[in-house]
Amino acid sequence: MKITIVGAGAVGASCAEYIAIKNFASEVVLIDIKEDYAEGKAMDLMQTASLLGFDTRIVGSTNDYSKTANSDIAVITSGIPRKPGMTREELIGINADIVKSVSSSILEHSPNATIIVVSNPMDTMTYLVHKSTNLPKNKIIGMGGALDSARFKYRLSEALECPASDVDGMVIGGHSDTGMVPLARLATRNSVPVSKFISEERLDQVSEDTKVGGATLTKMLGTSAWYAPGAAVSSLVQAIACDQKKMFPCSALLEGEYGLNDLCIGVPVILGENGIEEIVELELNDAEKAKLKESAEGVTKTNDLLDLKK
Ligand SMILES: NC(=O)c1ccc[n+]([C@@H]2O[C@H](COP(=O)([O-])OP(=O)(O)OC[C@H]3O[C@@H](n4cnc5c(N)ncnc54)[C@H](O)[C@@H]3O)[C@@H](O)[C@H]2O)c1
Ligand SMILES: O=C(O)C[C@H](O)C(=O)O
């Protein structure tokens, strides 16, 4: 199993590290435009192999896509991250051109690859990859909901004063400060609704903290987060590489599901060797449906900023 990660920055390198530690891939190629940067990250990571006990070969390359040839999965993390005070949507101008050219270079050398889009604004970048390539829709996946759900579980575990492994919960909708829809009604602690343990006000606070999870960390770090994003991407890569048939909320092209059309937005999907093998339609209540619709309107507004004729 060969995996390419475009962008050897914070998220790309973190993702490569978690993939290697999980030891399910034969090769990870890290590629970046900065001279020697990906090679340096790859060498540094390879020097952890004997310490951490993995066999995955990590290779670095400065913009030489021949090294990525015949990748099974390609992850796009290239582009700029936001600074404190910015929204993800403000990155569209620079990142759209990068994502478009990178996806074309990936497919030139790996026409059968499944692409996971990470660069922000992620739902719109995922839509752009659909619009600018001929890949079938199951092979283009946006990563956002897996991270947002991990943050939701973290906030729930804080509120319930229990380990994160004791709680379950999911965030659907757009990967934006206002567009996320944490499904608080469906969140559980060992199958018991979390509303049994915390007040409605506290649960509302958990949802609000989850939605601004990325902005909170960006303010603290001066740039956006990378450990949880890298871990979330590695989980999606593993689900596809190992044909796990696991369910994650991912940004998927919708064609009528949830009453939505012609956009990519976070919904639960089953991931396996064929990428998105199924879109799971949840029975949402009226309030949740209204939030998802509003979120979709926001994503569409950002999509409308793309120049798809370029
Ligand atoms: N979807 C999510 O949940 C999520 C989570 C975290 C970050 N992100 C996004 O991921 C992106 C990367 O974040 P980061 O923190 O790793 O940034 P970073 O600046 O640390 O790394 C980005 C890397 O991309 C490289 N790059 C730029 N143009 C390139 C090109 N044409 N080809 C190859 N490489 C190129 C840069 O040289 C840099 O090394 C940002 O857009 C950020 O907003 C998304
Ligand atoms: O917050 C960001 O800009 C990066 C990423 O989308 C995140 O949620 O961490």
Automatic annotation (TrEMBL):
Limits of the Lactate/malate dehydrogenase N-terminal domain: 1-142
Keyword entries, A-Z: NAD, Oxidoreductase, Tricarboxylic acid cycle
Single GO molecular function: L-malate dehydrogenase (NAD+) activity
Annotated active site: H175
Keyword NAD: yes
Domain Lactate/malate dehydrogenase C-terminal as annotated: residue spans: 147-301
Binding site for NAD(+): G7, A8, G9, A10, V11, G12, D32, N95, V118, S119, N120
EC number: 1.1.1.37
Keyword DNA damage: no
HAMAP family associated with the record: Malate_dehydrog_3
Protein name per the record: Malate dehydrogenase
Provenance organism: Salinimicrobium oceani
